[in-house]
Amino acid sequence: MFTGLITETGSVVQLRLKRPGASLVADAALLARDAVVGDSIAVNGACLTVVSVDGSRLAFDLSDETMQSTTLGSAKPGDRVNLEPSLRADGKLGGHFVTGHVDGVGTIRAKMPVGDAMKIVIEAPPEVTAFLVGKGSVAVDGISLTVVDVAGDSFSVVIIPHTAKATTIGLKGSGERVNLEADIIGKYVARFVSGRSAERTGGDERLLQSMRKAGYL
Q1: Where does residue 143 rank: exposed (0-12), middle (13-18), buried (19+ CB within 10 A)?
Q2: What span, in angstroms and rounded, lies between the C-alpha atoms of 47 and 68?
Q3: Cα–Cα distance between 123 and 109 in angstroms, integer?
Q4: What confidence tens digit (pLDDT) does each residue in 54-100 have?
Q5: pTM given for the model
Q6: Which member of 16, 154, 178, 211 has the lowest number of beta carbons within 10 Å of its beta carbon?
Q7: Does residue 214 sit in helix, strand or coil?
Q8: Which of 19, 67, 64 is nearest to 43 (CA)?
Q9: What residues make up the domain containing 65?
Q10: CATH number, domain at 80?
């Protein structure tokens, strides 16, 4: 479990293809100090397991599924990546609950300055947009962000200067791909609603009305 608050940005050292999957090595000066084999670290929002530590370099094995369903399969040496260690039981939850299980890959459609901030419009697949609501949470390359609005096959977020500097989102431009994870609470709500639709009681209907009023449906 993660929070979407990026600890540091590292850089890809190597992506070595294997059959199946691949081995990814990233330079992570800060996280490598305390990392041990077996630790879970989110790399651009994808939960990976540390398989070796060599100085400031962390190595991870990527499954074939991870290669196909995230942007990590096309990582190149020198690419910057967002890194976050798993949430400790005594840690602070400053973002939102992020599982590190990427729901889909989106594409940055546009970036527009809004004062000192930056509005970013991201094209996303239906398996992501189905769970997004305005003022809800979404993880973009592992960064916990607030959804401004959802419009058809896209949604928008606004990032402040600190986020642009402290993560990779400030470096990415139109046409570049990003890993997306919808809020897990929204996914459970959708599952509950679809599972109960065939046998709603009066209590269920009142709950659904309350959820609609709050903007969850």
Answers
A1: buried
A2: 14
A3: 6
A4: 999 999 999 999 999 999 999 999 999 999 999 877 777 788 889 99
A5: 0.87
A6: 16
A7: helix
A8: 67
A9: 8-85
A10: 2.40.30.20
